[in-house]
Amino acid sequence: MALNRRVKIRPPKRNLNDGVDIEKSWNVLSFAISEIYNKNASNLSFEQLYRKCYHLVLRKQGEQLYNNVKAQLRNHLLDKRSGLVEMIKSTLGSSTLQASVPFKADILVQVNKDWEDHCLCMRMISDVLMYMDRVYVKESQLPMIYDVGITLFRDYVIQYNNNEIGTILNHILMSGISSNRSGRLVDKFLIKSIIKMYESLVGDNDIGVNKNSDYEENYYLKSFEPFFMERSFAYYSELSNDLTKLENGLNYITRVNEIIIEEENMSVIYLPKVTFPKLIQLLDGILLTNNIAKVVDFKDQGFNFWVLNDEYKQLNLLYSLVSRIDKSYGFIQANLKKIVLEEGSSLEAITKESVRNNVNDTKKKRGPKENLTQYAIGWIENVCKLKEKFDIILEKGFKNNTDIQSSIESSFVEFLNQCPKTGEYLSLFIDSNIKKSSNNKTEEECEKVLDKCVIVFRYLKDKDLFEKYFKNHLTRRLLQQKSMSIDLERSMISKLRQEVGSLYTSKLEGMFRDMKVSKDLSLEFGNDKKTNFEANILTTTFWPLQINKDDDQVIYPDALVELKEGFEKFYLGKHRGRNLTWAPNFGSVDIRTRYKKRAYEINMPTYAGIIMLLFEYHGSLTFEEISEMTNIPKQDLTRHLQSISVAPKTRLLKKIPMTKEINPADKFIINENFESSTSKFKVLTVSLSNKVENDNERTETMASINNSRKFEVDAAIVRIMKSRKTLSHNELIAELIKQLNNRFNPPPSFIKQRIESLLEREYLERNSENRSVYTYLA
Amino acid sequence: MSDLGSDIEQDSKPRSKYVKLVSSDGFEFIILRELAEISPTLASMLDESFEFKESKLNKIVLREMDSFLLEKVVDYLYYHKKFSDKDDVPDFEIPTEMALELLVAADFLNI
């Protein structure tokens, strides 16, 4: 713009409405406001009103205008209020403030309508008075005229006369919500709009002083919410009482679940977001936290019932309910644990019962040992079943929650280790499943069973004890060729290795290696000598065999001596410097012989074979004579004589007299009349299959375990100290327990004892300054 | 309320795309509604939910402005619309002699 041209700037016209009468302008505006309230705005010219306001403000009449408008609004609202009170009175009758006010939609509708009208009018008025808002109100830092209108509505309609209308409205709303809760149909949107109105009612009580009040409680928070929460509390408490009285867990959780859904839906529809968490907290607290423990104890349809009857749906529901109040599911965990322990200990009785029934059914006579074995196998089987059951419950009921899973597992660990014989039982169970002909399972089925065994194994604390039994049983299976398949055995070992590492299984694997090497050797030897001779060369440290010194004294028949010496020469020629010890009590021989009826090929233990061969040259022999001629240890001799002269199917020898017991004076002769339905058969040795140990054997096993534990702990301590040099007592123990975890849990006293022993033997010494610190002595 | 006179036509469909602005000396400017609504003041006057006379008739009589001024105002509204979303905005021509009047009008219209 070229200001230098010195043009004259035209002044704005000020004189159009000059001399405008302030009083008159106000009257026009005041009339307009009434007209707006009467919905006659179409007769008003916005421009004119705006202009009036504009001039009033320009003439510094803003303050008066503001106050005048306020006063007029107040009067108008008071009128409205009286109308409302009138209406309420006529609707409710005179007893307006009783506790139970019926849900009168009319009143709400009217209030809502008045409110909406008021809002609209206020918008119009504030638009008309925009200039005042923009100029005067801003300058004087007053609330905008619209906000003033809202506050006025609260103060002169809702809260006027000691919150008269407000209280009634609260009650009406509440009774609406109550009827909605009890399933009756109410106009939710009406409730919602009133609550919305409540939320809009912000501001201090005194409008005049109201400055910079951005953060205030609205009427909803101040008045309705506390009331609502109080009522909800009563409602939930009553519900909870009613539901607990029914003593039906299923009913309880389904109802609670329904209520939760209802309340949530309700909240979403007409409650502000702020209330939602509060309400849910209240709800969860009353219906879940306070009562959930009771659900367990309900006899019909309680937690225990669901677990025992595999009611996954209910458990799932319960799970999702509990997830609302406790994300760690402590409640479920504790109760599951209780059930697992109870179930676990009841297995004993159940298994005993089933074994007893079994015995009664088959009417077979069995020794007590066999029954015990049966019990052991049955027990482990039941444990597996129980585990399986809880696995499914975990998956279907508790969404595989890891916390719950670990609590189930720890419960299993607890009850499995309560029984000191679990290791032995487990090994027996595996034995019975892997053995040939013991059942008609396919290999895949067996694999599955073995997988379960590994889980039980995982829970065992004394894994070394299990190892000992497993080794014993495995030895019998391998040497007597009783395994269903070597692959199965190998897969079992590899499962164990996966579980606890190769250190644990190295000896077991060594056993398999020995078997393999022996097979090749025997084949080679057999080809040389044109004989069918199988030798198993067993590394002493791998195999849990007791080398019996008496075995060396055994006198072999010539035929066997030749073979024996031949093999010794052959083997030592291959491997110089090795020491071969014969263990005839584990071997077997095939003997072809003729009885009256026909010729038979009989497979029998080596000792039995030796005995039989004596009868090539002798007609009759006494026990004493046999013992002298063979040098077979008496115990073994008795056993084998029993199997070839007493056992009904393999009575190759005739015993005189015919009694069950073998006495030193008994005579034996060839049983000429022997006959068998097959031409090839096997002589079974009495009591050589894997059975539960009796108490003596058990004490022995425990002693040997204890012995080997000593070495293991010693070795572990030395290993640790060698690498760490100095360690405090507690650190050492922690490290020790960590290392030995795969085998057993040594009690602290035991560890202390071993440390003492090592101190004595001067592997370690105590630090001179700090007595609880050990130093390794190289 | 009679000072608006009876010269307002009972005309125009509700919500026409155009609105009529009338100056104090009787000139009528017919402009797009959206242009008028640039001014909050005019927009409120035209707000349908309020049902003021102006919104019914789609016609606003501006007693404060003569035709010269109103023309300039309308100019400005077009100018505003044309350049509102552009970066390179040329100056709006304001005749020096009208500067003060325009200032007042702008205050009035809140633009």
Q: Your description of this structure?
A:
- The complex is a heterodimer of chains A (778) and B (111).
- Chain A contains 30 helices and nine strands.
- Chain A is mainly α and 778 residues long.
- Chain A has a three-stranded mixed beta sheet.
- Chain A is elongated, with a radius of gyration of 48 Å.
- Chain B has five helices and three strands; from the N terminus they run ββαααβαα.
- A three-stranded mixed beta sheet of chain B has the order 2-1-3.
- The model of chain B is unreliable at 1-13 (pLDDT under 50).
- Classes of the chains: A mainly alpha (778), B alpha+beta (111).
- Chains A and B meet through α2, α4 and α5 of A and α2, α3 and α5 of B.
What's the order of the H and E elements of chain B? EEHHHEHH
Portion in helices of chain A: 55-70%
Q: Which sheet architecture does the biggest sheet of chain B show?
A: 3 strands, mixed
In DSSP terms (H or I, runs of 4 or more residues), the helix count of chain B works out at 5
Strand count, sense and closure of the main sheet of chain A? 3 strands, mixed
Mean pLDDT figure of chain B: 75
What percent of residues of chain B are in strands? 5-15%
- Quaternary structure classification: heterodimer
**Helix content percent band of chain B:** 25-40%
Instruction: Tell me the β content of chain A.
Output: under 5%
Pfam family, one (chain B): Skp1_POZ
Subcellular location (chain B): Nucleus
Family (chain B): Belongs to the SKP1 family.
Protein name (chain B): Elongin-C
Features:
heterodimer; A: 778 residues; mainly alpha; three-stranded mixed β-sheet; three-stranded antiparallel β-sheet; 30 helices; 9 strands; B: 111 residues; alpha+beta; 5 helices; 3 strands; 12% strand; disordered N terminus; nucleus (chain B); Skp1_comp_POZ (chain B); ELC1 (chain B); Elongin-C (chain B)
Give a short summary of the structure:
The complex is a heterodimer of chains A (778) and B (111). By secondary structure, chain A is mainly α.
